[in-house]
Specification:
Helix content: 55-70%
Strand content: under 5%
Distance between the termini: 100 Å
Largest sheet: none
Number of helices: 6
Shape: elongated
Length: about 150
């Protein structure tokens, strides 16, 4: 990571001094990449400042799984980028299958999380609600109230 940042800084510095080293059109992209890599580097430093065991002790098993999956996905994604920078097609490398495998597990964890967040049905309340909302016909044996009023003739 540090090596990539150093090389990128050299390229952007060279670009500021001489625009002949790389096309001017990609200067903004290189600057954005440098910024993103710097942010990733800062996050990695933060994560590495706390021991893994100390971090995982504070989390429930589902959160632990999320941390492990995100870490594995991030490392494999960075390796994907490294392969691409070395001229290797990452789509033909086993890293593609590894990323897909991790993505499958991430989807499983998401399903579990969504199930936990889903509203629980109170069957008794739902039953009472439906029962009271339905129209019920009056029994046929109920006496009709006689019309005591005058007729309209």
């Amino acid at each position: 990571m540090r090596l990539i940042l150093e090389r990128l800084e050299l390229v952007t510095m060279a670009g500021e001094e001489m625009n002949e080293d790389y096309p001017v059109e990609i200067h903004d992209s290189l600057t954005a990449l440098e910024s993103s890599l710097g942010a990733v580097d800062d996050m990695l430093k933060t994560m590495m400042s706390v021991s893994r065991n100390e971090l995982l002790q504070k989390l429930d098993p589902l959160e632990q799984a999320k941390v492990d999956l995100v870490s594995a996905y991030t490392l494999n994604s960075m390796f994907w980028v490294y392969l691409a920078t070395q001229g290797v097609n990452p789509k033909e490398h086993p890293v593609k299958q590894e990323l897909e495998r991790i993505r499958v597990y991430m989807n499983r964890v998401k399903e579990i999380t969504d199930k936990k967040k889903a509203a629980k049905l109170d069957r008794g309340a739902a039953s009472r609600f439906v029962k009271n909302a339905l129209w019920e016909p009056k029994p046929k044996n109920t006496p009709k109230v006689a019309n005591k009023g005058k007729s309209k003739h």
